[in-house]
Amino acid sequence: MSATRRSVLTGGLGLLGLGALSACGGGARPVGPRSAAVASTEAARHARGLVTASLRAAPTTVDLGGVVVDTWAFGGTVPGPTLRVDAGQVLRVDVRNDLPTDTSVHWHGIRLRNDMDGVPMMTQEAIRPRGSFRYEFTAPDPGTYFFHPHVGVQLDRGLYGVLVVEDPHEPGRYDDEWVLVLDDWVDGTGRTPDDVLAGLTAGSGTDDGGASGGHGMGGMMGGSMSGMGGMGSGGMRGMRGMSGGGGDVVYPTTSSTVASHPTPTCCGRRRATASACASSTPPRTPSSGSPSPGTA
Fold it and tell me: Domain spans of the chain?
């Protein structure tokens, strides 16, 4: 039997592949949340101090500056409560799920231990209806982040909030701090984010603004296995649908909300503006943009 150049190369690649698989599989063990690797990494973050908070995910009614909608939210507000922690502190958040479906909380952009990352079926079991889950992790890096579920299209309802990780070494030489959250809004205006996703994945690639009801959560992010249509085969159908057209979505309104602002004081380390000090209350900021339809 003669050996050709092609057969030699193919055989060599096959042996190389087997060797690589053997190297990857030989003695490799998954890293669990209680493993020594996780413990050493957490210890290296030099956590100091503990901040506790609680979040309740539930159906609610909110006023978007004159547009009153039924939606889902944390703590009955959109956005949810602003959480603040100093860099290096441990944040412990107890989450209660009073939604009719599974949920979770993902801490977007935070460098944290994997079992606290809030992605059901990957890093944790989903939080079942009437269930609860405790998230606890060290927040290592100063910055402004946000939290939201990783289940279906719950993020496109009102289930999100701001997490501010303060730099304890920042001098704070500014008049005031405002956290502004902007969101193109659909939920409760005659249709839901699920209706929008259904229109985008139907093959046209365009959401026509029609209403078709339903609060199912099979969407763009994974939750329970039934809710992982976005990242699995259902998500690929969605990608094909969106690539078939411009992917335009008609938004009846836009929400612009001040998520956090400390009450101004005229004395102390952080000074307020003169106008704010004169009134002793923060300047009033509208909670909604124009309710006229638009596309984004």
Answer: 44-186+252-295
Phi-psi region of 196 (alpha: psi -120 to 50; beta: other; left: phi over 0): alpha
Q: What is the DSSP letter of 96?
A: E
Helices within the chain (DSSP H only): 5-25, 36-44, 193-199, 233-243, 274-279
Q: Which residues pair with 95 in a beta bridge?
A: 55, 133
| CATH code, residues 44-186+252-295 | 2.60.40.420
The answer to whether 131 touches 95, Cβ cutoff 8 Å, is no
pLDDT (tens digit per residue) in 222-273: 444 333 333 333 333 333 333 444 466 666 666 666 665 543 333 333 333 3
Q: By three-state DSSP, how is residue 59 classified?
A: strand
Partner residues linked to 132 by β-bridges: 96
What are the b/e assignments for 227-262, b being 16+ CB within 10 Å?
bbbbbeebbebbeebbeeeeeebbbbbbbebbbbbe
Contact 259, 180 (CB under 8 A): yes
pTM to 2 decimals? 0.65
List all residues 6 or more positions away from 181 whose beta carbon is below 8 Å from its beta carbon.
79, 146, 160, 162, 255, 256, 257, 258, 259
Q: Which residues pair with 136 in a beta bridge?
A: 92
